[in-house]
Amino acid sequence: MMAMMAVMLPFMASTANAQTKCYTNSRGRTVCTETNRGSFYKRHRNVINVGIGAAAGAILGGLIGGKKGALIGTTAGAGGAALYTYKLNPKTRRYERVYNRSARNYRRY
């Protein structure tokens, strides 16, 4: 069940539309920045992956070794998922786009 959820979670996550924020800087120019917040999975990818790894390890450890096996499986699963998330497949940095547009297009801001 958890493995199926781990596979389906990225497919169910939807991307939000970019939001435009405009302000007037000290030189009197209107500067607009367009930000894309990203999906819930993209923002919390590290925590979700470690949690799924810990849950999968707990299930396997519990089936194999009972309560003590579940505890060992939880730590092993969380450690393996953290290794994968932080070292083997790290996030890439994304930067905001900054556009300089004329004030006539954004007078209502």
End-to-end Cα distance, whole Å, is: 48 Å
Question: Using DSSP, what is the number of strands?
Answer: 3
Query: What best-fitting shape do the alpha-carbon axes yield?
Result: elongated
Mean pLDDT: 77
Oligomerization state of this entry?
single chain
Give me the number of helical elements: 3
Strand order of the largest sheet: 1-2-3
Q: Summarize the biggest pleated sheet.
A: 3 strands, antiparallel
Low-confidence stretches: none
Helix content percent band: 40-55%
Strand content: 5-15%
Written overview of the protein:
The chain has 109 residues and is of the alpha+beta class. It has one domain. 54% of the residues lie in helices and 15% in strands. It contains 3 helices and 3 strands; from the N terminus they run αββααβ. The longest helix has 44 residues, at 45-88. The mean pLDDT is 77.
In short:
The chain contains three helices and three strands.
List the helices and strands and how they pair.
Blueprint: H1 2-12, E1 19-24, E2 30-35, H2 40-43, H3 45-88, E3 97-100
Antiparallel strand pairs: 1-2, 2-3
Key descriptive features of the protein:
alpha+beta; 109 residues; 3 strands; single chain; 3-stranded antiparallel sheet
